[in-house]
Each structure stands twice: as structure tokens, then as C-alpha cells.
């Protein structure tokens, strides 16, 4: 306080003594770290706000070269997978490193022989199923693709013990009688359609005569791929022939999610090798029936396996139907 009175006398302005008292800062300002000298200077010049404390500037690291230097200095933690060259000769022992040898490709007869041998060595079920897994080339052009298909075939050597349930769509009483006499699980017209929509009737396959197809439109979304189609041989006038096919027929379907993969059971392991081979050939012929004419090799990869064994890679050239082989040769 004495300091401000002396300053007022030196300047000769006694009137400013009272106003000089207002130049002092409150204890709150001092405790908050306000710069005392700056506050006095601002009050003398009529300023109301204090000069904010200047914080030291942050130093940011330059991106680019600095980052490159840091990344170069860091050791590579990811271990690189070593590439091995294949051995020229085949493995002599039963146990060997797979990465040193290319995957073996088998003829159909050799693959069936090995599957039977695996069953004996592993003490597994001798009546287990044999499956054929096919990877297909479904691209028929740059933008077009082959639609996933489903069909029913009659295998040369059926192995299923159960008979499929088949429903026949027809509107005439005589055809309904023929269907029932030949083993149809259900037969009828509009009344049968209503029962299927209400989930009162569920069967394995559905066949129909051409005249009733317009009445079956409400079933398209419900039956989906099982809806009667000419390409699947499920539409026709020969009811006994259709029932014979679908009651004992074998269905092959392309997977809806993968759209280029087909897996189907073709036999059981206790069947003779020639019967297994014949069923496999029948499935391949049916698959190539859906192949567009302008398309090249349809089967990209084929594996034969049992329920408990690994898949054995088959030679795709030997799986081509005879008609396809002659066309490609020419």
C-alpha cells in the first residue's frame, strides 16, 4: 500500500491514490497463479482481462522420414515362411514331411483301394459311406455364371435302404389311382397343394403332370429347388416312370452358399470296388450334363473320401465322360 502512495505523490496526482487501492489483486488471483505485474499493467491501461499464461509449444515429430527411420530400426517380428523345393523321388516311408513332396494324385481304382485299406488299419466301420467332393468351374463368361443345380439320378448300384417319399400332383381321378398303385405317398390336386402349404404333408420329392402346373404357383417359394421342373425329370405324363426314378433315385445338389462345390454320397465301403467306380462315373456324367457347351473343363478338383478318412485327390482327366473327351480332343 505504501508503494502505491509514493507513486501517486511522485506523479503529483493525489486523486489517484484512492484508485490506486484497486490495483491490488485479491488473494484468490494470487493463489490461482495470476501474474502480479501483468495485472497492474492492465489495470493502469484500462484492461479488464489478464494476459493468459503462455504455455510452451509442443514439439511434434515430423511424419515421413522420422517414421521411416523408426520403422527401419524396428526388427521384423513376423517370421517368414520358408519355401521348400519338392523332392524329386516319392517318399519311401509311410511317415514323411508333406511340405517336401507334392500332393499325390490317384486314379479312381487306387483311391478306392486305399480307402478300404485305411478302414482295416483304423478299425473303423466297414459299412461307412464313401463321398465324392467336387469343385466346379461355374463361370461361363465374364459376367455370367452357371446357376447352382440339383438333379436326381438312378445309380447303377443303389445303396440306400430306405425308399424316398414322393407326392404326385394331378387333377384326374384315374391318374391319382395310378399314382397310388405305383407307390406314391400322396396324390391329388388343389387339396394336396393346400395341405402342403399348411405343413400337413412333407415328402422327399414332388412330381407333376403338365396340365396342373398353373395351380402349383403358390408352392414355388415353399418348395424352392424341389418344385417340379422339366430339367429335373419331375414333370411328365408317365407317372409310374417318374415314381420309379424318385423313389429309389439319388439326389445331387450344388451347395447354395459356396455355389461351386458339390458333395454327395456315392457308395458304402463294403461294396465291391467296381460298383463304387460305376456309381462315381454315373454322378460325374450327370454333373457334366449341366455343363454349358462353351465351357472348358467343368470339374476343377475332385476328392474321394470315406466318413473317417482324409480326402484323396483324384485325376480329373480320368473323370471326363467319353463324349466330353472326344469333343475336347477334336
From TrEMBL:
Record-level Gene Ontology MF annotations: RNA binding; structural constituent of ribosome
GO-annotated cellular components: large ribosomal subunit; mitochondrial inner membrane
Listed Basic residues bias regions: 42-62
Domain of life: Eukaryota
Sorted UniProt keywords: Mitochondrion, Ribonucleoprotein, Ribosomal protein, Transit peptide
Alphabetical GO biological process terms: translation
Keyword Nuclease in record: no
Biased composition (Basic and acidic residues): 63-74
Membrane found in the keyword field: no
Annotated region (Disordered), positions in chain: 39-74
Subcellular location(s) of the protein: Mitochondrion
SUPFAM superfamilies assigned to the protein according to its UniProt record, in alphabetical order: Ribosomal protein L1 (SSF56808)
Family membership noted in the UniProt record: Belongs to the universal ribosomal protein uL1 family.
Name of the protein: Large ribosomal subunit protein uL1m
Natural source organism: Cricetulus griseus
Amino acid at each position: 500500500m505504501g508503494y502505491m502512495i509514493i507513486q501517486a505523490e511522485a506523479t503529483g496526482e493525489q486523486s489517484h491514490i484512492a484508485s490506486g487501492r484497486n490495483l491490488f489483486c485479491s488473494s484468490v488471483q494470487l493463489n490461482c497463479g495470476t501474474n502480479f505485474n501483468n495485472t497492474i499493467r492492465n489495470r493502469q491501461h484500462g484492461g479488464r482481462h489478464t494476459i493468459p499464461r503462455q504455455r510452451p509449444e509442443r514439439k511434434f515429430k515430423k511424419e515421413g522420414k522420422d517414421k521411416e527411420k523408426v520403422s527401419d530400426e524396428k526388427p521384423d517380428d513376423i517370421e517368414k515362411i520358408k519355401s521348400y523345393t519338392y523332392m524329386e523321388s516319392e517318399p519311401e516311408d509311410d511317415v514323411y514331411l508333406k511340405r517336401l513332396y507334392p500332393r499325390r494324385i490317384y486314379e479312381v481304382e487306387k483311391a478306392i483301394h486305399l480307402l478300404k485299406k485305411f478302414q482295416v488299419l483304423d478299425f473303423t466301420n466297414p459299412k461307412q459311406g464313401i463321398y465324392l467332393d467336387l469343385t466346379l468351374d461355374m463361370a461361363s463368361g465374364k459376367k455370367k455364371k452357371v446357376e447352382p443345380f440339383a438333379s436326381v439320378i438312378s445309380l447303377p448300384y443303389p445303396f440306400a435302404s430306405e425308399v424316398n417319399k414322393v407326392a404326385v400332383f394331378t387333377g384326374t381321378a384315374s391318374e391319382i389311382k395310378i399314382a397310388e398303385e405305383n407307390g406314391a405317398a400322396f396324390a391329388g390336386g388343389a387339396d394336396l397343394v393346400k395341405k402342403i402349404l399348411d405343413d400337413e404333408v412333407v415328402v422327399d420329392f414332388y412330381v407333376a403332370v403338365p396340365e396342373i402346373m398353373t395351380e402349383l404357383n403358390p408352392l414355388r417359394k415353399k418348395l424352392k429347388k424341389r418344385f417340379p421342373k422339366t430339367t429335373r425329370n419331375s414333370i411328365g405324363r408317365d407317372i409310374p416312370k417318374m415314381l420309379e426314378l424318385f423313389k429309389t433315385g439319388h439326389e445331387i445338389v450344388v451347395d447354395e452358399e459356396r455355389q461351386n462345390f458339390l458333395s454327395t454320397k456315392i457308395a458304402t465301403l463294403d461294396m465291391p470296388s467296381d460298383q463304387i467306380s460305376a456309381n462315381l462315373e454315373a454322378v460325374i456324367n450327370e454333373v457334366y450334363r449341366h455343363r454349358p457347351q462353351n465351357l472348358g473343363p467343368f470339374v476343377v478338383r475332385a476328392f474321394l473320401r470315406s466318413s473317417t478318412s482324409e480326402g484323396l485327390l483324384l485325376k480329373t482327366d480320368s473323370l471326363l465322360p467319353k463324349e466330353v473327351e472326344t469333343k475336347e480332343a477334336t
